[in-house]
Amino acid sequence: MDAWHLSKRLAAVANFVPDGARLADIGSDHAYLPANLLLNNQISFAIAGEVAPGPLANVKSEVQRHRLGDRLIPRLADGLAAIETNDLIDTVVIAGMGGRLICQILTDGQLETKRYHRLVLQPNIDVDLVRAWLSENGYRLVDEAVVADEGHYYEILVAEPGNVTYSARELQFGPYHLTEPSAAWTEKWQREANRIESIMKNLETADKTDTEAYQSYQHELQTIMEALVYASR
Prior knowledge:
Blueprint: H1 8-14, E1 21-26, H2 32-39, E2 43-50, H3 53-65, E3 72-76, E4 91-97, H4 99-108, E5 118-123, H5 127-136, E6 139-149, E7 152-161, H6 168-173, H7 175-179, H8 183-205, H9 212-231
Parallel strand pairs: 1-2, 1-4, 2-3, 4-5
Antiparallel strand pairs: 5-7, 6-7
Helix pairs in contact: 4-5, 8-9
């Protein structure tokens, strides 16, 4: 992968960045995403924020390699502290982190009077926590996606300012997926259901069906199957 050839995961994230955006990519990892968008003239300006000197050096190398000069600015900072007021950032990408960390970054960098035009978030785990954070902090989902890349399924959340409350099912599975399920979303949850069924069979073989663990898996499996049925109606 490089700035000209993004992974399926990052390419899917890039698709949700608006044309002409002023972008902050937090935890940029070589800055492949903002570099790609700049090289293709899809955005006008980008900040690549990194919390450690090593990754920041990778960003600087990418800037020099593609001669992106003052259009891609590397910043050593913790989370959204990489953004300065005169950057006029309207779009924030946080991709490839755990959901709890994404929520913490958003919380630490939140300003009461400031809402970014768009957040593009790709949590590796705890996606439900990110949906809940958005709902509780003045953002609403405007799109969602699941992309399969090298054996993994990645969820992408796209949010803009707005007020909305989600049900427990919507928080776990995604309101857009429940109304228009993609093949990748269905595959992800069917695979998870199969995994849980396998664990339950092992517990049954060990005569542990009366355990708290078995009952928890049973409830989890039922929740997934109900969501799959609901989405396919």
